[in-house]
Structures are given as structure tokens and as C-alpha cells.
Specification:
Layout: E1 2-4, E2 12-22, E3 25-35, E4 40-45, H1 51-58, E5 66-72, E6 75-78, H2 91-97, H3 106-119, H4 135-148, E7 153-157, H5 165-182, E8 185-189, E9 201-206, E10 209-214, H6 216-225
Parallel strand pairs: 1-5, 4-8, 4-9, 6-7, 7-8
Antiparallel strand pairs: 2-3, 2-5, 9-10
The structure holds adenosine-5'-triphosphate and magnesium ion (MG).
Magnesium ion is lined by residues 51-52, 157.
């Protein structure tokens, strides 16, 4: 993995990445894709096609067995189930937790946390216990954690899977707005075709490789016909 300063090149470059969880069982087979800087792309594919494996490789949680991955740093990762990543008792403390490795004053930490919570419209819940949040609010706390760390790339693994249709669209609109305002790059995994209306491009993964990519409307039409 290159912790890349890669000029104006794409924020994410994957070239022929292969990964197997166990010998002979390839989860990714020669997977290649590029996400331009400042764009919001979505990743679709049937269950088991390798979406979560690919996101873990991009986040540096796994290494490809062959091939090459370059990704702009820092990377923020939002898991499908926010209970897997919210570790502190309150909203403010959880967002601040990701900043412990940075040498910031308490004032700087407070300002970063408040700014990130404001972006996801949760500032009024700063002192709220995590257990008292809805699923959608937990997702937004996880996203605020990545934003507080000033991530350049946001990876989101089915962030709307647990949400009702209204909360689902609220979240995708909010992330769309944040990506644009902050000039971030995002890769968002989903099974829900109505979310494609908010992205710049789509990758379709099948059995561990990208089999189609590009314009969201075209890919959506192809999937609706299938
Ligand atoms: N921790 C693991 N150990 C062994 N095999 C795994 C592990 N995680 C995933 N796999 C296997 O790798 C393949 C790809 O799984 P992955 O979770 O990446 O798919 P996915 O596209 O995210 O699916 P879904 O839509 O169900 O989330 C599957 O065959 C799966 O069983
Ligand atoms: Mg998955």
C-alpha cells in the first residue's frame, strides 16, 4: 500500500488486485478501478462478489496477494454496522477518540469535533450517550469521526443497510453534500439502486472483478433490466 501523495492523479487506483481468504478461494480476481479526486462513486454487486473485501484492502486492513493499490491518505472507514466502531460512551467523546494520536490541544480537539458534528447535523447531540441514538444517528457519528480526522477519502460499506427509506435518503444526500463541500473522495457500497441518483459514477463487481463502470443512469438501467 502506498500512503500516496500522488499529485493530481486519481484518489484511488487499484490495479489487478487479487485476494484470497483461503487457498484457492479468490475473493478478488484481478480487480482494477480508479476513482478521480473529489468524486463520489458507488460500488454494487451481488452478495459475496467481494465489495467488503475490496474496501478492507483500500483501508489497509488487508493486503492484496498480488496487484497494486494506491490511495490518498488519510482514509476514513465507515462500517455497515456502526456498533462495530463506536467505542466511547458519548457522541462527543467518540468523535474525539479518533484524534488521540494527533497532538492537539483540548481546545483544538473540541473545535474539530464540533465542526464535524455540525456537518452531519448532530451538534445538539454532543453529550448524548451512544446507546440513546438511532441507527441513522450512529452512522452519522461514525462519519463525523472520519471527518474530524480530516480524511481525504471516505469508504462506506453499506451505510444505509439498516436504515428506513427516509433516513436512507437523508444520509446519502448528506454525504453527497459533505463530499462536494469538502472536496473529498468517497466510495460507497450499496445494494439500493435509488442511491445511484446521488453519485458521480458506479462500479459493478462480479465474482471479484469490476465488470462494468461509469455513468450511474446507464448502470442503473442495466441493473433494472436484469
Ligand atoms: N473473514 C472471512 N474469512 C473467509 N472468507 C471470507 C471472509 N470475509 C469474506 N469472505 C469470503 O469472500 C467472498 C467475498 O466476500 P465479501 O464479504 O467481500 O462480499 P460482499 O460483496 O461484501 O458481500 P455482501 O453483499 O453480502 O456484503 C465471499 O465468498 C465470502 O464468503
Ligand atoms: Mg459486504
Amino acid at each position: 500500500m502506498e500512503a500516496a501523495e500522488i499529485g493530481n492523479s486519481p484518489a484511488i487506483v487499484v490495479k489487478d488486485a487479487c485476494f484470497e481468504w483461503s487457498p484457492g478461494k479468490l475473493a478478488l480476481t484481478s480487480c482494477s478501478l480508479e476513482v478521480p479526486r473529489g468524486e463520489f462513486w458507488m460500488l454494487l454487486g451481488t452478495n459475496g462478489s467481494g465489495k467488503s473485501t475490496l474496501l478492507r484492502l483500500l483501508a489497509g486492513l488487508l493486503r492484496p496477494h498480488s496487484g497494486d493499490i494506491q490511495i490518498q491518505q488519510p482514509v476514513g472507514f465507515v462500517f455497515q454496522n456502526p456498533d462495530c466502531q463506536l467505542v466511547m460512551p458519548t457522541v462527543g467523546a467518540d468523535v474525539a477518540f479518533g484524534l488521540v494520536a494527533e497532538k492537539l490541544t483540548p481546545r483544538q480537539v473540541h473545535d474539530r469535533v464540533a465542526e464535524a458534528l455540525d456537518l452531519v447535523n448532530l451538534l445538539d447531540l454532543y453529550r448524548r450517550p451512544i446507546y440513546a441514538l438511532s441507527g441513522g444517528q450512529k452512522q452519522r457519528v461514525a462519519i463525523a469521526g472520519a471527518i474530524a480526522r480530516h480524511c481525504e477519502v471516505l469508504l462506506l460499506d453499506e451505510p444505509t443497510a439498516l436504515l428506513d427509506p427516509d433516513s436512507q435518503l437523508d444520509l446519502v444526500r448528506q454525504v453527497r453534500r459533505i463530499v462536494t463541500e469538502r472536496n473529498l473522495t468517497a466510495l460507497w457500497v450499496t445494494h439500493r439502486l435509488n442511491e445511484l441518483d446521488y453519485c458521480d459514477g458506479v462500479f459493478l463487481l462480479d465474482r471479484g472483478e469490476v465488470v462494468d463502470w461509469g455513468d450511474p443512469e446507464r448502470v442503473k438501467a442495466r441493473l433494472m433490466e436484469a
